[in-house]
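User: Sequence in, structure out. Go.
Assistant: Echoing your sequence, followed by the structure tokens.
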Amino acid sequence: MPGDYAGSDLILQENQLVIEKESCFLCERVHGRCIIKEYVINVDVLLNQVRSALERGDLKSAVGLLEALKPADQANVFDDLQPDEQDELLPRLNPEDSADILEEMQDEDAAQVAERLHSENLADILDHMEPDEAADLLGDIKPALATQAIQSMKEADEVLPLLEHTDDSAGGLMTAADVILKEEMTVNEAIKHLRAISPDSEQIYYLFVVDDRGVLAGVVNLRDLVVAPKDTLIGSIMERDVISVKADTDQEEAVRIVKRYDLLALPVVDEGDRLLGVITYDDSLDILEDEATEDIYRLGGISKEKPGDISLKDAIRSRLPWLVVNLVMAMITGSVLSLFENTIAQMAALASFFPIVAGVSGSSGTQTLTVTVRSLATGEINIKDARRSIWKSLLLGIVNGLVLGALVVLIGYLWKGDIQLGFIAGVPRWSMS
């Protein structure tokens, strides 16, 4: 089976596996060439094939099926396997493929898989991971296992400095700056240095220049380096006004800087402006996704853990307090309505307007809350803007309330034929905006 997939390009698209190759076992052939260039397989079928291969002890077929995929697709398929199937398969994969899978998986899932590995196997995989990814994984697993793995690693020197920084800081997000230039280098020397380093480099969009003390002096765009004459000094083509962040800068702020200035890489420096590492664009995207997800969960008062991973006790603890708050607010609303029991009894038609008033008012509050939370998360507003934001929301509520209240008055008149009833229902609608 693996041989049939050899040389294929497989892409996971909406839970389907697209296989593209010149010759395969899936279609008729004419003179050794495929009539059909593209074939689609449901991923569930591929999962069943991997599981069947594992059940019959055909590890070679299972490994071949998985190794034929792209890294992101490998992680997608691997994540759907049972823990015992993962444990049987991962140590037999190429270390590069194992590293790619753990890098693509969610941090919590990758840590669970890593903790079931032997320290030597884990060390081999960590050596093939990007330093920042390896540091993140080591920080998520049990300290004893992390220590054993570090002792067995060949590339531990690149990872250890990254472990000194907290996960939520720029230092915890950065990776090592592999390609570092000096001002006195010529373009030809820089290109030779780049060719020697680039196969193992995560990013070469920008080439950072430091002085003899390691202080960040400038940055060279890769395009400028390529088009410059070979004997040109790096110091003459570099940009000296470099945007950078300190290692203890909050990672959200660092990501905002990347987004604000459209950077592909952001250098991280210490208090003496010595270059420590680089935050890459792909890592920034991961943080943006994580923070956006966390903010959405906070908006609903729930945990950011996946439903299958969080315990019943923790799920109750994270959700129940918010439901209790909503219950208290509903009781307050009910107590206010109880003050008008006699009025409602005399004009029973008012009860039909309660869902309208409550529903639209709830939507208005949700809109304001969503916009405010998003603005706080993206840094569009801060504490200094609080007064202006509150005043704007207040004016918006008044205007929306007037418009919607007028509509309720009109609806009340057309529906019940009583303009007074419309006013009685419309005024609360305006006041609750």
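User: And one key feature?
Assistant: Residues 340-431 form one domain.
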